[in-house]
Amino acid sequence: MNEAGSEEPRRAxxxxxxxxxTLGGLLGALWLGSWAFDVRRYxxxxxxxxxxxxxxxxLPLVVQALEEEGTPLVxxxxxxxxxxxxxxxxxxxxxxxxxxxxxxxxxxxVFRTADMLYFIFFDGEGVMRGFVCVSG
Length: 136
Fold this sequence. Notes:
Number of strands: 4
Helix content: 55-70%
Oligomer: single chain
Radius of gyration: 25 Å
Number of helices: 4
Shape: elongated
Strand order of the largest sheet: 1-2-3-4
Strand content: 15-25%
């Protein structure tokens, strides 16, 4: 066999390897970008709720403020039993976390943003005491 004939399969392997590496790099970059976007999105929601929590607002004010900005109330629980029913339906995989954080507080309200659910917990006096953000 001459040298020209053996070079064509070698060149095809090199081209296939280069294409695979390029595709792998592209997929890695897209995955990393998607992951970073999700982290940023989640931390923005958490930061927003942490700032709200520092003010210790009363339940009616939280409901009114969120609804006025287009974040509607989509669920509520006024007992641990009601929270046990609500959490698996809305929080799905994070229901256990919602139950753990909500257990000490008698009232829970759930709000839907475009891409998140806010589980907000209130004490017996109706003061905000905690929250959990769940990707919606």
